[in-house]
Amino acid sequence: MAQSSPIILIIPGSFSTAQMYYSVLSSLETLSPNTPAYVSNLPSAIRNAPEPAATLADDAAHFRSIIEKLAEGGREVILVAHSYGGVVATEIAGVSKKEREAQGKKGGVVRIVYLAAHVVEESKSLQEQIGQPPNPAIAKVGEDHFIRFVNVQMIAQGTIPDMDQTIAVEFIKSMGRHSNLSFTSKATHSGWKNVPVSWILTEQDFIVAPDLQKSYIKRIEEESGQKVDLHVLATGHAPNASAPEKVAEVLVKVLALEN
């Protein structure tokens, strides 16, 4: 039998490490102390040359392994997927509670919460869906298939416009490189078809524009036949940095839907 409260598992955005979400976990612990919540690093965001750049499949396999370990213990999981993390959450197959129950197994993913995220169509890559990587004056793809930031100030302004820019620049500087192969890998699965979906839409987002987020929501609703549970934050693309307490407040509301 599953525990009373689902586990929250955060999938970070590109270039982001787990520690960039610790403030969200801390705020959530304050608001809902009995809710277990975790975040793990994306292989595509932590590997360094000469290690091979990770693909979307590598990222999905990493989080699938974590989910399966939790599910085997009977635990229900809510995935919180930020930015590129939405592509990963969508790609993970076979771990929803619905799919596992059909196999006579317990536990599994009961909801995906997309946070300012991308949702890629099957047989497309993120790059094919949204276009080429940023201008080389902003970020550059190396011969090793890793993307590195060039203009930190411009990225800070675009990513966290709702934060003091001195602090925002330091936050961006703490990011490393990211695998371009994760952006060019083709998606093979639509995980949102098997679970209810919540969405945290960021109104001041210059990275995943609000209208683009709304188009993802519309497609999910039209293709799944289910209403997306929508929450709106007046933030930029990274509320995990600028407004972690607001993200935690939404997650508490989402938890109430599953308890």
TrEMBL record:
SUPFAM superfamilies linked: alpha/beta-Hydrolases (SSF53474)
Chain segments annotated as coiled-coil in the UniProt record: none
Top-level taxon of the source organism: Eukaryota
Gene3D superfamilies: alpha/beta hydrolase
Domain AB hydrolase-1: 8-250
Residue ranges crossing the lipid bilayer per the database entry: none
Protein name stated in the entry: AB hydrolase-1 domain-containing protein
Taxonomic source organism: Cladophialophora chaetospira
